From TrEMBL:
This is Glycosyl transferase family 2. The keyword Iron does not apply. Keywords: Transferase. Pfam families: Glycos_transf_2 (PF00535). It comes from Gillisia limnaea (strain DSM 15749 / LMG 21470 / R-8282). GO terms for molecular function: hexosyltransferase activity. The keyword Phosphoprotein does not apply. Residues 24-167 form the Glycosyltransferase 2-like domain. InterPro entries: Glyco_trans_2-like, Nucleotide-diphossugar_trans.
Length: 335
């Protein structure tokens, strides 16, 4: 079984007749023990009880700690624990989470993220208000490895609503994080799980859902997305794989649109993402002066999109990179 499925894996419906709660909070975890306690506690603070909420950690054979012991210590008998027989990778671990879920609503809460008080109640209410919605999400706050606030995501609307033209907006660039969105299990049963790539697979999923279902929105910052150097996002950035994966994802998402709009939207999507990636590359290089990831980003960017703006930005960054050793040399000589 391939670690990165080539097509959406099927999600089997729950047919065993056992009790089904409203919620399944499924926590995929891999070598994130430094943050896992915070993720679990953030859920337990708003626990609706066993009849209404399933809470389970699905461990992809972590090697950084005894995750089972950690879960038992924090969650006692309230939080279930399941360990993969072998490391299967993030996409297959998400698939396992969904297949093991029993609730009507499935929240994939990564083991390094957190939810704020009120998230589950707010999502329950928005689904009740808009029963035809297949998914619902809220804006989120970015936090660092220490849990410190960094910045907020954009607001998509000023009041609870069904987002208009959401597929077209999603097609332009990624606008979501796992921690902020909940999907009805029946939607996963119809559309399948995550596939294609390890970076940007969620963007494709949210677009796949938007093609078939309404997406509801809650304009409250009720989720916290953590950025740190051990994340899949950071690792993908180091090699430039993020750009290559996004190129694949973009092509799939654009195919969900009417043919008359595909060509223009494809160019817009590539440009938007590459501009964002270039700005991130600038900021990251100035933060840590690490040349290799910057070179990898530049190479990958030029492989999928280029214009005068991108060429000029790359030229400026390369000037800083190549002149940095000389500036450091002068500083030492002038001391």
């Amino acid at each position: 079984m391939e670690r990165i499925p080539e097509s959406p894996p099927k999600i089997a419906p729950v047919t065993d007749g056992l009790h089904r709660p409203i919620w399944s909070v499924m926590i995929p975890a891999y070598n994130c023990s430094n943050y896992l306690k915070e993720a679990i506690v953030s859920v337990l603070k708003q626990d609706m009880g066993e009849n209404l909420m399933q809470i389970e950690v699905v461990d992809d054979c972590s090697t950084d700690a005894n995750v089972e012991e950690l879960v038992r210590t924090i969650g006692e008998d309230r939080v279930s624990y399941y360990r993969q027989k072998e490391n299967v990778g993030s996409l297959r671990n998400f698939e396992t989470c969904i297949n093991r879920s029993r609730g009507k609503y499935v929240h994939l809460l990564h083991g390094d993220d957190r939810v704020k008080k009120g998230y589950y109640l707010a999502v329950t209410e928005i689904f009740e208000k808009f029963p035809g919605a297949g998914a619902a999400f809220c804006p989120w706050e970015h936090i660092d490895s220490y849990g410190r606030f960094s910045h907020q995501s954009r607001l998509e609307a000023d009041e609870p609503c069904i987002l208009a033209n959401w597929l077209y907006k999603l097609a332009q660039h990624p606008r979501l994080q796992y921690v902020a969105i909940t999907v009805k299990r029946e939607v996963y049963e119809k559309l399948g799980s995550f596939y294609l790539v390890q970076y940007g697979e969620d963007w494709e999923m949210w677009a796949r859902i938007a093609k078939e279902y309404d997406t509801a929105y809650i304009p409250e910052f009720l989720a916290e997305y953590r950025e740190h150097e051990n994340s899949i996002t950071w690792q993908s950035y180091q090699t430039g794989q993020n750009i290559k994966d996004i190129e694949k994802v973009t092509a799939i998402i654009i195919s969900y649109l009417p043919k008359k709009d595909q060509r223009k939207m494809l160019q817009n999507a590539k440009r938007n993402y590459v501009y964002w990636a270039m700005n991130e590359t600038f900021g990251t290089w100035f933060d840590n002066k690490n040349n290799k990831p910057a070179y990898n980003q530049i190479k990958s960017i030029l492989g999928i999109y280029r214009d005068k703006y991108i060429i000029s930005r790359i030229a400026v960054l390369l000037f800083y990179i190549w002149s940095d050793p000389y500036r450091n040399f002068l500083k030492k000589r002038l001391k």
